[in-house]
């Protein structure tokens, strides 16, 4: 008896990934590498909000339990008043926890929106993706340059509020404004809120803020208060920063009108600018942001390919971005691009001149691509007009040049 054996049909070959889809996947991978802060910032903000809510709940619940155990037993009226106060306090805690829950939900919504945004990198429309990315980069730049109103307006008109970090930068603005007004209290409160993470990153911001507050007491000639402050807030740092502590406490002797340079600099206004810079660095590190604005990073990536020694000379052509002072300043720390061979670009078409499109020299010495001159000759009965000088000649007078 013959048996029929069913052999499974081979699986159809996997269709190759279309070039456009492959490009989108590459774009998504590049976006994650260059803009990791797109997801990292709201995640860090969510973690911070959860920690704050947890600390608040622990503190209030412990206080409520302590208050309940201390309720008076001898007087019923006093007990009622005590319990009424306790209930009122618990209602306040409930309101605070509800506000905290709403803040957490907002951060979760932003994380979800950004993950969805990254998911569209490999499937969405190219033009729409690039347009929104440019707007996000511009908002990031405006926030870092303190153009908060402009950044908010652009985010609202573009509908990208969940894709930018305006609220995070506004919290930082409050601290920066206080430091610029010679106040350290908001900055110290920020350090207290993020104490564990700042300690892990070995930040010196809190220590420098304490030093500055001590110096301000000395500057105001409140020496007794300065000594008391040093004993309470600076002494715990002695095992780590003893040399700096010794130098700062010596200001009690030298005072603010000293001409001794090592101590004179401690009283200068530049110290507050230094604290602002230190806060910005720790703020960016805490949220996983790049120290430089994303706009600068993208621009520098392009300028790296364009920068040559010729760009620093006065004869840099106007078409070159490095002819502008702003771009030259941005490209200043960048290395020169590596050029193995000279490249000739046509003044008319902006296309590269090579063996397929060779250069031709006009009688007046200017060089243009053969393609551009042929098109010009067809439109003008074989005549060529130099776009730089206006001189006219026949196409036959143009001599081919050879690149070695």
UniProtKB/TrEMBL annotation:
Name of the featured protein? Macrophage erythroblast attacher
Which stretches does the entry tag as region Disordered? 1-29
Location of the protein in the cell: Cytoplasm
Give the RING-Gid-type zinc finger regions: 316-389
- Could you tell me the Gene Ontology terms of the biological process aspect for this record? proteasome-mediated ubiquitin-dependent protein catabolic process
The scientific name of the source species is Panicum virgatum (Blackwell switchgrass)
Tell me the ranges covered by the RING-Gid-type domain, including all copies: 316-389
Q: Which PROSITE patterns match?
A: CTLH, LISH, ZF_RING_GID
Domain spans labelled CTLH: 168-225
- Keywords, comma-separated and alphabetical: Cytoplasm, Metal-binding, Zinc, Zinc-finger
State a GO cellular component annotated for this protein: nucleus
Q: Where is the composition biased (Pro residues)?
A: 9-19
């Amino acid at each position: 008896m013959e048996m029929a054996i069913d052999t499974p049909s081979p699986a159809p070959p996997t269709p190759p990934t279309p070039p456009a889809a492959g490009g989108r996947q590459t774009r998504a991978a590049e976006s994650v590498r260059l803009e990791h802060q797109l997801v990292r910032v709201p995640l860090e903000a969510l973690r911070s909000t959860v920690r704050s809510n947890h600390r608040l709940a622990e503190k209030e619940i412990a206080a409520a339990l302590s208050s309940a155990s201390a309720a008076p037993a001898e007087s019923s009226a006093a007990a009622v008043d005590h319990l009424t106060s306790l209930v009122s306090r618990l209602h306040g805690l409930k309101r605070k926890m509800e506000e905290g829950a709403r803040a957490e939900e907002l951060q979760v919504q932003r994380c979800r929106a950004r993950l969805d945004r990254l998911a569209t990198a490999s499937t969405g429309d190219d033009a729409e993706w690039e347009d929104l990315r440019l707007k996000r980069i511009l908002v990031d730049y405006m926030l870092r340059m303190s153009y908060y109103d402009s950044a908010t307006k652009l985010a609202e008109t573009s509908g990208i509020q969940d894709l930018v970090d305006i609220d995070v930068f506004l919290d930082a603005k409050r601290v920066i404004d206080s430091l610029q007004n010679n106040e350290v209290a908001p900055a110290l409160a920020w350090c207290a809120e993020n104490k564990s993470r700042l300690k892990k990153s070995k930040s010196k911001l809190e220590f420098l803020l304490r030093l500055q507050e001590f110096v301000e007491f000395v500057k105001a000639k409140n020496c007794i208060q300065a000594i008391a402050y040093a004993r309470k807030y600076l002494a715990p740092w002695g095992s780590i920063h003893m040399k700096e502590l010794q130098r700062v406490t010596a200001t009690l002797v030298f005072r603010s009108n000293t001409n001794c340079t090592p101590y004179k600099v401690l009283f200068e206004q530049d110290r507050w600018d230094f604290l602002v810079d230190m806060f910005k660095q720790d703020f960016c590190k805490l949220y996983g942001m790049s120290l430089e604005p994303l706009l600068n990073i993208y621009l520098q990536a392009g300028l790296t390919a364009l920068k040559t020694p010729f760009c620093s000379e006065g004869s840099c052509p106007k078409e070159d971005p490095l002819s502008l002072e702003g771009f030259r300043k941005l490209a200043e720390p960048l290395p020169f691009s590596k050029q193995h061979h000279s490249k000739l670009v046509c003044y008319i078409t902006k296309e590269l001149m090579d063996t397929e499109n060779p250069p031709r020299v006009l009688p007046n010495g200017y060089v243009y691509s053969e393609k551009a001159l042929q098109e010009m000759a067809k439109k003008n009965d074989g005549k060529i007009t130099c776009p730089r000088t206006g001189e006219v000649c026949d196409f036959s007078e143009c001599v081919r040049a050879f690149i070695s």
